[in-house]
Design a protein that fits this description.
The protein has helices at residues 4-11, 16-19, 47-58, 81-86, 97-101, 107-110, 138-154, 242-255, 260-268, 321-325, 335-342, 382-393, 449-455; strands at 35-42, 74-79, 129-135, 158-159, 163-165, 220-221, 224-225, 231-240, 348-349, 352-354, 371-378, 416-420, 427-432, 436-446. It is an alpha+beta fold and 458 residues long. The chain has two domains: 4-237, no CATH class; 239-351 and 384-441, no CATH class. Strands 1, 2, 3, 4 and 5 form a five-stranded antiparallel beta sheet that branches. Strands 8, 9, 10, 11 and 14 form a five-stranded antiparallel beta sheet that branches. The model has no long low-confidence stretch (mean pLDDT 92). Bound molecules: protoporphyrin IX containing FE. Residues 172, 174, 176-181, 238, 240, 268, 270, 274, 321-322, 325-326, 347, 372, 374, 385, 388-389, 393, 408-409, 436 line the site of protoporphyrin IX containing FE (HEM).
Length: 458
């Protein structure tokens, strides 16, 4: 029988009618749509033309109902607070401070370098609208991008270079399976997988109770709840220096007499196939990367199969990317306390890589520009993306560690260390290179379809 607490969370979530309003990106990663275009624009054409543009595209936006039907082509629209102003509205009541500030002003919170040299999203290159199109093939993706660009140009918008991703192989450029661990957000037609954490709908979708049993703050316009069935979207272009990471891994692994695959997995916390080190710690085992097992583990509690309780991180280091990004039951206090805290800091990730697919052996150096369009969705950017980036990934003293930050979060500022627990002695490896750099980004509202119609003046 289903856990009553989980059943209650699911019952309190969006209904079928709400799903027709919510943008489908909330519930679908579209892994069958391997080609993506990100169109970034500043709405310079004036209120009337910008609203007319929004009216046209709003009807094409893929809802969470349509997202479940087969098709070739998905369209999503996100607006930043400056975009809402460009549409002729005052800065909305109920918009959280971090959204008003914008990503580029939050460098101290995010432990970023200053946004000098960003390709877009800094003070002088503000993004008002982000249109995302997904297609199953390159030709369709290119046609969709062309149509969206033409509509924006006709509306007098300023366009930044379109960002393209595809084909999607399921791996990020360092060579690891990506997009695997996600919270279960009520409203989804399926059921949570074994170990997958069901969170309150209001942790991701506005208009529902969150983990504090409160309604998330929601932006309003003339008494209309513009947040209802919407969410906040973080977009961040991250360049990955694949050669630098693997060169350090090769040299360091050789120096301590270990295999390079072992060391790379210790940094990430999962093997390239996606199998967690908490489940299979001696070698990669794609059987554990199967969907049913992908989240079926904890770090503190006993873990089937075998004696794999791992509070000290002997299998999956506390310092690894995935254990910092989601400490599961091993943060502090009892496992239930820890899971309760973690449930307040979950995000839905929808990232896609850029650049050519990584070579079969990711350690083969080439000079291609590669990286990740990191996207995450949450009802509070401060409690979601910013908290994870600052308090877990970027925290020098995370969970008893000393002077080290996440190996893949980006902008580590200085070279850092990583501690890998082992017996009889741990390894403390120095000079982990700074391999991820922010090239631009922004904070957006991903409004529901009714809210888009309202903003379009309809
Ligand atoms: C280029 C930068 C990054 C790379 C290469 C990367 C790569 C990965 C990989 C390979 C996984 C494991 C597979 C999976 O569960 O999807 C993962 C998990 C995760 N990452 Fe990242 N990531 C990056 C940046 C970030 C950032 C900036 C954040 C948030 C601020 C983040 C948050 C997470 C979270 C929450 C998980 C899931 C952990 C879990 O629930 O077990 N990542 N990442």
């Amino acid at each position: 029988m289903a856990d009553p607490a989980v059943a209650a969370l699911i019952a309190a979530g969006p209904t079928a009618a709400d799903l027709a309003d919510i943008q489908g990106l909330v519930y679908g990663a579209y892994s069958d749509h391997g080609w993506v275009g990100y169109v970034l624009a500043r709405l310079d054409g004036g209120v009337a033309r910008s609203r007319a543009w929004l009216r046209t595209i709003a009807g094409d936006v893929t809802s969470a109902v349509k997202q479940q039907r087969p098709s070739n082509g998905r369209t999503h629209v996100a607006l930043s607070p400056t975009g809402i102003v460009a549409l002729g509205y005052p800065l909305l009541d109920g918009l959280p401070q971090e959204a008003r500030d914008g990503m580029w002003t939050r460098t101290r919170v995010l432990r970023d370098d200053p946004p000098d040299g960003w390709e877009f999203g800094a003070q002088t290159s503000q993004i008002d609208a982000l249109v995302i199109v997904y297609a199953r093939d390159q030709i369709t993706r290119d046609q969709m991008v062309e149509a969206r660009v033409a509509a924006l140009v006709a509306a007098g918008a300023h366009l930044y270079p379109t960002q393209l991703s595809g084909p999607f192989t399921g791996r990020e450029p360092f060579g690891f399976a990506d997009g695997l661990a996600q919270p279960f957000v009520p409203g989804h037609s399926g059921a949570p997988r074994e170990g997958q954490q069901t969170i309150a709908a209001g942790e991701v979708v506005l208009g529902y109770q969150n983990a504090y049993q409160q309604m998330p703050a929601s932006p309003t316009l003339d008494g209309f709840d513009l947040g209802k069935n919407g969410t906040y979207l973080v977009f961040r272009k991250l360049r990955q220096d694949v050669a630098a990471l693997w060169s350090w891994v090769e040299t360091t692994a050789a120096a301590i007499g270990k295999d390079r695959a072992w060391l790379a997995a210790k940094l990430m916390g999962r093997w390239p196939s996606g199998a967690s080190l908490a489940q299979t710690w001696l070698h990669d085992d794609p059987a554990f990367a199967a969907k049913a097992k992908i989240d079926a583990f904890y770090y503190d509690e006993e873990n089937p199969p075998g004696p794999s309780r791992d509070p000290a991180g002997l299998h999956c280091p506390v310092a690894s990317h995935v254990r910092r990004a989601n400490p599961r039951d091993a943060r502090d206090g009892t496992p239930d306390d820890s899971l309760g805290v973690v449930a307040k800091h979950r995000i839905v990730r929808r990232g896609r890589p850029f650049g050519p697919p990584a070579p079969a052996d990711p350690a083969t150096p080439d000079t291609a520009e590669r990286g990740l369009y990191f996207i995450c969705l949450q009802a509070s950017i401060a409690r979601g993306f910013e908290f994870i980036q600052q308090t877990w990934l970027g925290n020098h003293g995370f969970h008893g560690l000393y002077q080290e930050v996440d190996p893949v979060m980006g902008n580590a500022a200085n070279t850092t260390c990583i501690t890998i627990p082992a017996e009889p002695f741990r390894y403390r490896l120095k000079d982990v290179p700074d391999v991820v750099h922010v090239l631009g980004g922004g904070y957006f509202l991903l409004p529901a379809k009714a809210a888009l119609a309202k903003l379009a003046g309809g």
